[in-house]
Design goal:
By secondary structure, the chain is of the alpha+beta class. The chain contains 24 helices and 23 strands. Helices cover 50% and strands 16% of the residues. The longest helix is centred in the middle third of the chain and has 38 residues.
């Protein structure tokens, strides 16, 4: 048996070598399909399927508590269910009995200085038991321990470096242990290096420095966060005890949690329904084997939609190669008949044909790996640096290679089985009598037509999806943002990371804003706490003078602290009142501005100017901020977001100044102006890094990277499917023209007009196309519905896009069928009849 398989393999190689055009066409078709599937699967594997590189990751759970929160909330995910206060974490950690350990973490911006060089990086505040509970071992030195996590202890000023930072920025020097680095203005002792491949508990973070929770006040200057139950900012991960289920551990933790909530509610004076909703908040344990799923939450559906699309591309490629194999079987029908006549079994012929198919698939997989590697590199280069994808690898590991192997085998059977079975059904007598191998051509023709119908149906799906995503991107680019985007440069400075207290930061920002305005060609400059289109926002509930909130009414407003001239700098129209200026200093009376949506919601029929607002709620809250202006609605976080009710306060009246994003308006060359801006910042503080400098238009484009990437890929895959289908239709119609040469010759001989002959061939093409469209049309609506959440400004069943796709596929079929039809009109009747 092994000898027979080897004979089949060598025979397949010889036959494929003898037909180079067929072989190259088949390998290229499959290479593109397999390569696209391998590339997307590699991303899905890294983002959605991988587990954390820790001991027994299946024992980890993410601890959440959905429900109302009272106070300050900081969250890097949708909703605040995963945010906890530090005092609450300590109570749960110390009193629970259902977990082997509860750990806490919080990501923060970090400036790391060593040997005179400062690098903006990502830091991670972790509880002292973090590495022990996760079961992580150091690559060098030691990791953090509970003994390091003591507030006020000199031992807490230690840091563990991330492996990537250690290798890329410090040259993997082993003598880094016990040396001093400066982290956010604090001298820290390096005690160890995390292992390679460990990027923290969340894919996409790529942490450069791990510090204990006790260093929170020093790492986030002007914000303590360790002493208040109503300051929610950290995340909790637990490891279940052996033989303890998540339900058991959650119930045990809930019993501890309820009394803590009741005590906190009493401390805050909560009463009635508000208190009841607060104290009955549940504990929810989510699977934590893959860590905190922040990146996957944003990319899961796009990746799955892309996987469906590349799957369709591969099916179209399979249909294309199957068509080639059927045509090849027709030309080899006499050979097959001879082998059957000499005693070969039909099973033996099927095995030989499948071997040939698997050889083609294997060669296609080899080409596909090169395509996949190129595709992954291209995809990651298209993504902005702050998208959380920098930790993704471009290499194809064993898991991806195993997927490609399985896909190759399945693909070989998918496109090879039907041609193999059909080839074995050859009528021996007819095949031997027919020197041209025509005994099975009618059956083969029907199969080839069926494969074309399948290709057309799948191609319609691809073209519709490409149209939907393309239309979405066009809709997003045409959105009225409510502000000016051209000729604006934005950049970020974070003095707190260099140890600046609020008073010193205020002086620096005032001097920097004044300095920026003196740059030749600069029209205006201002700043904001929360950058627009920067995936960052803040909100707070409010109490409004003269407005009585209804029961359970949402009084939450999007908030931002902005500098003098902010609205004129960004071109946001002022509707009434005034905007902030130099009068609104730290010592001046509190003022605020609101947008149209807020004015319309809470001041119907009244002029908001002169009324007052306060942050917070409750009977004891007294509105203390005077409304001095109303501005037009403008987008803040996302281009496609709904208008949000917003309130603005002067940046200089902010109590804790840590960082700010500056905006500079100028018609000057952006590159030259950026260099000048860096010089102005360096003149004020040579150690202060300038980060995230880019034009506002670039920032907006980067905020749309997911939609742009989906559009590019869908257009690329759609174009590939169109190309494959076009070749398939052309091949089938050319085959049919050659098979019907005698009939066409007779028609021409008896006086048929060339136009009628062309229409006869084109009509057959359009018939197959119409059937394919009819089959594919219902599935376009299903696929559009699945991708609905990724679309903007339309539904997944958009008729304009669908009709355009139908026209495009029909034109493709018409073009692919026209050339064989034209060739049919040039058939010489005498030659055709003589050949028959």
């Amino acid at each position: 048996m092994p000898g027979d398989i080897w004979k089949d393999f060598t025979y397949a190689l010889r036959t494929l070598k003898a037909a180079p055009v067929f072989t190259i066409a088949a390998i290229l078709s499959l290479g593109l399909g397999i390569g696209a599937n391998t590339a997307i699967f590699s991303l899905i594997d890294q983002v959605l399927l991988r587990t954390l590189p820790v001991q027994k990751p299946e024992e980890l759970v993410i601890v959440k508590s959905p429900g109302p929160k009272s106070g300050h909330v900081n969250s890097d995910e949708d909703g605040s269910a995963g945010s906890w206060s530090y005092p609450m974490y300590k109570d749960l950690r110390d009193k629970n009995t259902g977990f082997a350990g509860l750990i806490a973490r919080f990501g923060f911006d970090a400036n790391i200085s060593f040997n005179g060089q400062t690098d903006p990086s990502q830091g991670e505040l972790v509880s002292g038991n973090y590495f022990d509970v996760l079961g992580v071992r150091p690559a060098l030195g030691r990791l953090l321990t509970p003994a390091d996590d003591v507030i006020g202890s000199a031992q807490s000023s230690v840091v563990v470096l991330g492996h990537t930072f250690w290798t890329q920025h410090l040259g993997a020097r082993p003598d880094i242990l016990n040396q001093q680095i400066v982290l956010n203005g604090n001298s820290m002792t390096v005690v160890g290096v995390a292992p390679a491949g460990f990027f923290g508990d969340q894919l996409g973070l790529n942490v450069s420095a791990f510090v204990t929770m006790s260093m929170k006040p020093q790492m986030t200057l002007n914000w303590n966060g360790l002493d208040k139950y109503n300051d929610y900012w950290l995340n909790i991960i637990g490891r279940l005890k052996p033989n303890t289920s998540a339900d058991q551990a959650g119930a045990q933790l809930q019993a501890i949690y309820r009394p803590l909530l009741e005590a906190e509610a009493d401390l805050n004076g909560m009463k009635g329904d508000r208190r009841q909703r607060y104290v009955t908040k549940p504990i929810v344990l989510e699977p934590g084997a893959s860590g905190r799923q922040i990146l996957s939450q944003n990319t899961r559906q796009p990746l799955l939609v892309l996987m469906a699309m590349v799957g369709l591309v591969l099916l179209i490629a399979c249909a294309n190669v199957a068509n080639l194999l059927v045509a090849r079987a027709t030309s080899r029908e006499r050979e097959t008949s001879v082998r059957l006549a000499l005693g070969a079994s039909r099973a033996r012929l099927v095995r030989q044909c499948l071997t040939e198919s698997l050889v083609i698939a294997g060669a296609g997989a080899g080409a596909g790996l090169a395509v996949a590697n190129w595709t992954i590199r291209g995809l990651l280069q298209l993504m902005p640096p702050d998208s959380g994808t920098h930790a993704l690898s471009t290499s194809l590991d064993s898991r991806v290679l195993l997927f490609t192997l399985v896909l190759t085998i399945v693909t070989g059977f998918v496109f090879g089985l039907l041609p193999a079975l059909e080839s074995s059904r050859t009528d021996v007598n007819a095949g031997l009598k027919s020197g041209t191998g025509s005994s099975g051509t009618s059956r083969h023709a029907r199969i080839r037509k069926l494969l074309v119908v399948v290709q057309v149906a799948f191609t319609l799906l691809m073209v519709v999806e490409a149209g939907l995503f393309g239309k979405t991107l066009m809709n997003l680019h045409s959105v009225d943002l409510g502000l000016r985007t051209a000729n604006i440069i934005r950049f970020r400075v974070a003095p707190a990371l260099n140890g600046y207290p609020t008073a010193k930061t205020q002086v620096l920002f005032e001097r920097l804003q004044s300095s920026l305005k003196t740059i030749p060609g600069v029209d205006n400059a201002s700043m904001a706490q929360e950058p627009i289109f920067g995936d960052s926002d803040s909100s707070s509930n409010v109490t409004i003078d003269g407005y009585t909130a209804g029961q359970d009414e949402d009084m939450n407003l999007n908030r931002n602290e902005v500098g003098a001239g902010y609205f004129s700098t960004l071109g946001i129209p002022l509707i009434s009142g005034r905007e902030f200026d130099s009068r609104d200093s730290a010592d001046a009376p509190k003022v605020c501005m609101i947008n149209q949506a807020t004015a319309e919601r809470y001041f119907r029929g009244r002029d908001p100017i002169g009324y007052r607002i306060a942050f917070g709620g409750g009977d004891k809250t007294v509105p203390d901020m005077l409304i001095v202006g109303v501005v037009k609605n403008s987008k803040h976080s996302e281009v496609g977001e709904e208008v949000r009710r917003s309130i603005y306060t002067p940046y200089m009246q902010r109590k804790d100044m840590n960082q700010a994003t500056f905006y500079v308006t100028s018609a000057a060359d952006p590159t030259a102006l950026m260099n000048t801006i860096r010089t102005r910042v360096r003149d004020l503080d040579a150690t202060l890094p300038v980060t995230e400098m880019k034009t506002l238009e670039t920032q907006i484009d980067e905020s749309l990277y997911a939609q742009r990437l989906m559009t590019i890929l869908s257009l690329a895959f759609g174009g590939l499917s169109v190309m494959l289908s076009g070749f398939g239709i052309y091949g089938v119609m050319s085959y049919l023209v050659s098979r019907r040469a005698r009939e066409i010759g007779i028609r021409i001989a008896v006086g048929a007009q060339p136009s009628l002959v062309r229409w006869m061939i084109v009509r057959e093409t359009l018939t197959m196309t119409a059937v394919g469209i009819a089959i594919g049309l219902p599935f376009t609506f299903l696929l559009g519905r699945a991708a609905q959440s990724l679309l903007y400004g339309m539904t997944g069943s958009n008729m304009q896009v669908t009709l355009a796709a139908i026209v495009a596929v029909s034109l493709l079929a018409l073009a692919a069928g026209y050339f064989p039809a034209r060739r049919a009109t040039r058939i010489d009747p005498v030659t055709a009849l003589r050949n028959e």
